[in-house]
Write a structure and sequence with these properties.
Catalytic activity: GTP + H2O = GDP + phosphate + H(+)
Number of helices: 5
Low-confidence stretches: 1-18, 196-222
Region (Disordered): 196-232
Number of strands: 8
Oligomer: single chain
Distance between the termini: 7 Å
Strand content: 15-25%
Mean pLDDT: 78
Radius of gyration: 17 Å
GO molecular function: G protein activity; GTP binding
Pfam family, one: Ras
Keywords: Hydrolase
Helix content: 25-40%
Number of domains: 1
């Protein structure tokens, strides 16, 4: 097993939270941007290139949404995911709007979730995420329409559908994870989970500015993100 790698990053808006961390698993083919999505939420920074053979787990606390553990299984070779799917409170199935194959894969990934969670009393929150919406403005880049994404979310019984640009908008990412926090809390309380299955956050929306996170405490805390290498 490769030793864990830890980065310590200065970040404003961090506080200690006593509540249990929300456990999330990201699923999707290599190249859809799921690692960039996790890092964008944890650090508010965008980094576009990652080693898809490395399995990562991000542990951090956010002032607005609480404590998180986000598991990002390696995409190639595929990492065993069933134990993580049983562990998770929420599962985000990610595809790229510019990659039809990654979209087609979402149905199989949803089946894996259902199989892994059979017999569990509390079903996980499942969201379908169409990433790279910034590419929709480039002729010939969009391969999956928002309408298809909404229909697929309905078909796989997802609690929400989001079309976002991890590259262009940290606010879209933050809003999405804020909804994850709310949906997990509703599920844990034993109530019905009220999702937003037809929410679309396009990078050209313009209304996203109204959804910025509230003011955060002064800087001075530090955020630790751990990444665990996959076994050779």
């Amino acid at each position: 097993m490769t030793p864990p790698i830890t980065w310590s990053l200065g970040l404003s808006g961090i506080r200690d939270v006593a509540s249990k961390a929300i456990r999330v698993v990201l699923l999707g083919q290599p190249g859809v941007g799921k690692t960039a999505l996790a890092v964008r939420f944890a650090t508010r920074r965008f980094i576009g290139e990652y080693d898809c053979t490395t399995e990562r787990i991000y542990k951090f606390t956010d002032a607005a949404t609480g404590s998180w553990e986000i598991a990002d299984p390696s995409g190639y070779p595929p990492a065993p995911t069933e134990p993580k799917l049983r562990w998770a409170d929420a599962i985000l199935i990610v595809y790229s709007i510019s990659d039809r194959v990654s979209f087609d894969e979402t149905s199989r990934l949803r089946f894996l979730v259902t199989h892994a969670r059979r017999g569990r009393k509390v079903p996980p929150v499942v969201l379908l995420i169409g990433n790279k919406s910034d590419l929709a403005a480039s002729p010939g880049e969009r391969m999956v329409s928002a309408w298809e994404g909404r229909r697929r979310a309905d078909d796989i019984e997802a609690h929400g559908f989001y079309e976002i640009s991890t590259r262009e908008s940290v606010d879209q990412v933050t809003v999405m994870f804020s909804d994850v926090s709310r949906l997990v809390a509703e599920a844990a309380a034993g109530g019905s989970v009220q999702g937003n299955p037809f929410r679309v956050r396009a990078s050209t929306d313009g209304s996203i500015n109204a959804l910025r996170r509230p003011p955060v405490p002064p800087p001075g805390r530090r955020l630790s993100i751990s990444a665990r290498g996959a076994p050779p």
